[in-house]
Write a structure and sequence with these properties.
Helix content is about 65%, strand content about 5%. It has 11 helices and 4 strands, in the order ααααββαααααββαα. The protein has helices spanning about 10-20, 20-35, 50-75, 80-100, 130-155, 160-170, 175-190, 200-205, 210-220, 250-275, 280-295, and strands at about 105-110, 120, 235, 240-245.
């Protein structure tokens, strides 16, 4: 089959060879991540509600499929296209950690204030129990869906279908929204996170690792989502005032992008293991993968 992109066949052959160890590690990590929920007959533990387990497994599955997508894009030399996938993977990891950790505290951060660097978020008379966090996350999803339907209702070409869907949604019960109360509903309606915070503050509330990865993945890679990455797709010769398309990057950039996806995915596996406890063998393998990822030549 002839190349679609210039030198595509050469890149497809070169990358798996040059980064053979890295892709082998990523594949083994993904296989471990996919298999780990099946190593336990029943994920329902203690007082965990059924919908909490369902929501956690859904988020975890989304994380693993995102990891697979990022890995595939890196393998074919489309690592820049994997950056938005990594960004989404990071968001999923934040939501998963928020949902299934034993305890969570939310803060608004004031980076410019040494006297008052962070302020606890108002909880409106609620406690951030696992049950309430389940309600909060699912209520936010419902509110986001309602927002999208309202947008359809005023969009030329789909107004009629949108209004019909709006009528159907208006007739549905909203148990999760009712459970969080009107104050929380106002706090999260139309916001980008299920707690009403910026993704930066939401991630930072979950600890230094998430705060670090916000800067390394979400913030830096957002340009690839918001279309401000034009120069990454050009090779420029300023001396001669010429430029040419840059179809592919380099092995080092591919390695870095793959590494980001692998580390975030390992974090998701670790969060799931801390809550559902898959045993000492799983804990040992998580530790081994962490050590292996730290050894990559970045």
């Amino acid at each position: 089959m002839p190349d679609i992109l210039p030198n595509e066949s050469k890149v497809l052959k070169a990358i798996p060879k040059l980064l053979a160890n890295e892709f082998d590690c990523a594949r083994r990590l993904l296989a471990f991540g996919v298999s780990i929920p099946t190593t336990k007959d029943d994920l329902h533990q203690g007082s965990l509600r059924h919908d909490t387990v369902v929501t956690a497994v859904a988020l975890y599955t989304k994380a693993m499929t995102s990891f697979r997508a990022s890995m595939h894009l890196c393998q074919i030399g489309c690592d820049r296209s994997a950056l938005p996938v990594n960004r989404s993977l990071f968001e999923t990891s934040v939501n998963l950690a928020f949902l299934i950790r034993q305890r969570v505290t939310l803060y608004q951060y004031n980076d410019n204030s040494k006297a008052n660097p962070k302020t606890p978020v108002k909880l409106h008379g609620k406690r951030l129990t696992t049950e309430f966090r389940t309600d909060l996350y699912n209520a936010w999803n419902i509110l986001m869906s309602e927002k999208n339907v309202r947008r359809y209702s005023s969009t030329p070409g789909v107004k009629r279908a949108g209004r019909r869907l709006q009528k159907e949604i208006d007739e549905l019960e909203r148990p999760y929204v009712d459970a969080i109360g009107t104050d929380w509903e106002k706090a999260i309606r139309g916001k980008n996170t299920c707690v009403g915070l910026s993704i930066k503050d939401f991630a930072s509330s979950l600890g230094s690792a998430h705060r670090l990865w916000y800067g390394l993945v979400y913030s830096s890679d957002s340009q690839h989502v918001h279309q401000s990455d034009m120069t990454d797709f050009l090779d420029c010769d300023e001396a001669n005032a010429t430029f040419s398309p840059r179809w592919f990057t380099c092995p080092d950039q591919v390695r870095t992008t793959l590494h980001k996806a692998a580390v975030i995915s390992l974090g998701c596996i670790e969060e799931l293991n801390k809550r559902f406890r898959f045993g000492d063998p799983a804990k040992k393998r998580i530790h081994e993968f962490g050590k292996e990822l730290r050894s990559w030549n970045l």
